[in-house]
């Protein structure tokens, strides 16, 4: 339109006008026409660019629409899988573990002669049996700082054994809760544990002061800070319900079922029996080796004069009478040391343990020491070791000592020889031989006197998963 207007203006100048027009006017008109042409060219260029941009924006719009549709589909898929992901996350917080042990066991105990028949001289001193132990446990990580542990095991309610003897006309084997506890890591250096738990304190090497199957019940706190460690604990041993017997046996005379304690020196039959204790120790690096040392103290509260026994068995501790309560309190000071090093490619462990009951004046000391070379764990690895232990009659509370050494009683001493081999990972073949003496200081009766031999052989096939 601009060009047409300019041309019409030029043509409107007739010949007469042309004669009158000056050269300057014509030059001005030509300049205006040139300017108009340049503007038209620029507008056409801009129009072409706008068309290209419009096509590009349209393509982008189509792409964004397609992407939006795909994202909506993906969002729907993710939403439907959210529940599955949540369930998988919870399953990932649970860890299962377990083990099975098959054992052949042979025992020779001269004090058992004539026990079954009631006739002296009948040879019943030897016993052989096949036994199994099965355990299955779960650790559930509730939060980043709170863990719950549950475990069931064979063995029924026996606190010192999860073994079940095969036989009994193929009877079903009893199981029970072996562990049921929480473990709250309330600080980087400390844990609070409650329920039926593993021992919260350190036991050195292969010491048999405490049975490995006993899982105490109560509350405990552990701490680890640098080279130092320790624990404080309170364990429930036996609840007293007025004069009711909480640990009785069908073979106990009727006259003894009226009370489970001796009411004397201000004591009553209604007091609960429990243990309070603590341990503190340190780990000392010595080159590539480590020395661990610790001291501890435990106090059996309200035990004196009462019978806080499983199956009504004192396990060697002194009583005030045949059907009476404990003669002494058990205020036990304990010390331990464990040295771990390498001999070539084999681990070497040397350990020692000492304990003394502060209440009685005599027969109140226990000590043990031993060595173990190697470790039967990985493919074709082995171990071998030995130890010696002495437990005087009232040195330790008989309800927690090892149930195999000296038939699980105090007033014992002797050797323990061990060997093991792992043919494949998570399996091991173990042999343990106890060469012990019982009734070392106090005779069992007038017939056997003191220091009666006691031998026990255990051959185990262990499988872990």
SSE inventory with pairings:
Layout: H1 2-11, H2 15-20, H3 23-92, E1 94-108, E2 126-141, E3 146-154, E4 164-165, E5 175-187, E6 190-196, E7 217-225, E8 228-238, E9 273-286, E10 289-301, E11 330-343, E12 346-357, E13 365-374, E14 381-391, E15 412-422, E16 427-438, E17 452-464
Antiparallel strand pairs: 1-2, 1-17, 2-3, 2-4, 3-5, 5-6, 6-7, 7-8, 8-9, 9-10, 10-11, 11-12, 12-13, 13-14, 14-15, 15-16, 16-17
Order of helices and strands: HHHEEEEEEEEEEEEEEEEE
Q: Output mean pLDDT.
A: 86
Major sheet size, sense and barrel closure: 16 strands, antiparallel, barrel
Report the β-strand fraction as a percent range: 35-45%
Structure classification: alpha+beta
The counted number of beta strands is 17
**Lateral arrangement of strands in the main beta sheet:** 1-2-3-5-6-7-8-9-10-11-12-13-14-15-16-17
Give structural notes.
18% of the residues lie in helices and 41% in strands. It contains three helices and 17 strands. The protein starts with a helix and ends with a strand. By secondary structure, the protein is α+β, with helices and mostly antiparallel strands. Strands 1-2-3-5-6-7-8-9-10-11-12-13-14-15-16-17 form a 16-stranded antiparallel beta barrel.
